[in-house]
Amino acid sequence: MQEPHRWQFFRAGGVDQVAFRSGADIARIGELDQKLWVALACPTRGIEFDTRTLDLIDTDHDGRIRPPELIAACRWACAQLRDADGLLAGSDTLALDALADDPAASIPLAEEARRVLALAGKEGATHICLDDVTRRAELLAAMRFNGDGVVTPDTAQDDEALQRTLLRIMQTHGSLKDRNGREGIDRARAEAFYAEAEAMHAWQAGDGASTCQGGGMLEAAEAVAAVRDKVDDFFARCRVAAYDIQAVPALNASSETYEALATQELSLQADGIAALPLAPISPGRSLPLREGANPAWAAALDALRAKALVPLMGEEVAALDEASWIELQRVLAPCRDWLARKPVNTLSAEDGAGIARLLDSRAAVMALIDEDASVERHNARLVDLEKLLRLQRDLLRLLNNFVSFKEFYRREGAIFQAGTLYLDGRSCDLTVQVADAKQHAVLAGLAKTCLAYCDCTREGQKMGIVAAFTAGDVDFLFVGRNGIFYDRQGRDWDATITRLIENPTSVAQAFFSPYKKFVRLIEEQVAKRAAASEASAQGSLGTLASTLANADRAIAPAAPAGAAPPVRLPAGGRIDVGTVAAIGVAMGSISAVLVALFSKFIDLGQWIPIAVVGIVLAISGPSMLIAWLKLHQRSLGPILDASGWAINGRMKVNVRLGASLSKTAQIPRHARRFVHDPYADRRGVAAALAALAVVVGAVVVVWQFGLLDARLPAALQHAPSAAATQQAS
């Protein structure tokens, strides 16, 4: 019984992940519980990995890699090598003596490798690289026999008869392209072609063939078959006319039929003329073969006379009666039955000599196909050799991005990371290709991460990405902002934010968030009031301008004699004393409350700093708590799941990892920095903070020396009286 394998794990992202330290770890990957795998599926496109390697692992060709396919690839690669530790090197060069012997293989890999090296002019070499195999594959496609099972006319070289046969097969049964893009045929098409030739040959040599092929019988039977239905129709109409003379007008073409034909551009082969009876219908009439016959059938009737009636009846006739017609069919019945058995295929028009020539070429055509197919077993081993070299180079990297996420957590560039986005003074390394941003955002929003979806364009190409902002603030991230995206090949793309999922990036950002929102609300209200005032002022100015412009048109009506002059009120109107008193009472009450709160705050004494901290926490605490909870829930899984992965573990992105994924701008360590800014605001935020600090310091000093103790009660005593005085007035 095989002993259990000793695995080694490392901790990253809150998940235990397996470490691959030997070839035995790779060979026995199937024994690792899949609940310990980080991912259970990944797409073969949209990731930074060699697509050819992924296609060789994806045996069911569904565009996804799953554990059974990866396990099978690991076991196969280890079985082909004498020492599986060679898979840890990540090299695309393989020593021939490192290949294991496989007695069950039709061609050993080492033998195929030597054959490839010999064809590449490296006979005697001890190592083979991936480039040797890929160049051999290109050379193979241009060879006469390349093992793809398709032979072209060029494959026949100087044999013109064989070339014509291959072209005939392509014309009758279609063609397909070989590995070099040239048109040719495969075994299935050749066998179908020769099956039809065999059927024609069997018919031509069957019962009745000897009788019909001699003495003009075949030509007579074909001439009768060409007009049989039409002649039967003529004699049947004549019999009906003999039965009842009243049917004659109906059995012949009506005048309306001829009127319709007269309106058309006629020809003797027109369908309308051919549909008419062979001759006018009357009781007991014979069929005229020359004069009086339907012109559309004149040629067929002439062939009937020349090839059937004259040779078989022995006399020149101008008309055919019904009895002679019946006798003619009786004589030709064996030939007619033989013709009825004629195969209907693409070779039906070929005569016996032509069919014989085609059958004679069968051996040569099949020999070409067999010779080409004999190379296929070398091609299959060539693909195996390419697969082994690719797995030796790429398998460990795939394991470190599938079974574990070692490359991601060691910041070595995981295969799902599309590149780096530079935007808003930051570089974001956690970027993933996205095909449909709207659909991706539905699931990716569960990652509790600030995500920006961008459309990237470059030289007419378009690509969608999502970038995770895990450091800095999000104040200036909005739809429409532009940046630059560098893919893993170093190519630059223009990037524009099209969708944004907002989430906190740090607790510090959350601390200032309420104050920023408060200031933003004040700015918005002030802007609204200013806009309303401006609109009102513009309206008033417009009214005044209109009044002044039309002053000469306003004529006051004459006052009646003896009428008293009108009483004019002051322009400002009358001031309501009660309103003034109410405003005074309100202001007094507010001032009293503020003074009382200030006095209570001063009474705290040495607890004032703690009170200040409490007030700050009451304002910023909820935002900081929500941010802390979201930062601890921040995960990579939903982002990758939305991109087609199947993430098995909870891949956390903590604050430390997030800080490494999104880097803010930093001045170089040894750079010189001149802090004087000639355009800096003179009354900026720093000045406001300094003034606030001076006020707080002054209050503390006054409180420490007891200067407020005597004055504060007096102020409190005068506050109510002031309010009462205002109310009385």
Give the helices and strands, then pairings:
Layout: E1 8-12, E2 15-19, H1 23-27, E3 39-43, H2 51-57, E4 64-65, H3 67-80, E5 93-95, H4 109-119, E6 127-129, H5 130-141, H6 160-173, E7 176-177, E8 183-184, H7 187-204, H8 209-212, H9 217-243, H10 248-251, H11 255-262, H12 271-274, E9 287-288, H13 298-313, E10 319-320, H14 322-331, H15 333-340, H16 352-360, H17 362-374, H18 376-399, H19 406-409, E11 419-423, E12 426-428, E13 431-433, H20 437-444, E14 450-458, E15 461-469, E16 482-487, E17 492-501, H21 507-549, H22 577-603, H23 608-633, H24 637-641, E18 646-647, H25 655-661, E19 662-664, H26 685-704, H27 707-728
Antiparallel strand pairs: 1-2, 3-4, 3-18, 5-6, 7-8, 9-10, 11-12, 11-16, 12-19, 13-15, 14-15, 14-17, 16-17
Helix pairs in contact: 3-18, 4-18, 5-18, 6-7, 7-16, 9-13, 9-15, 21-23, 22-27
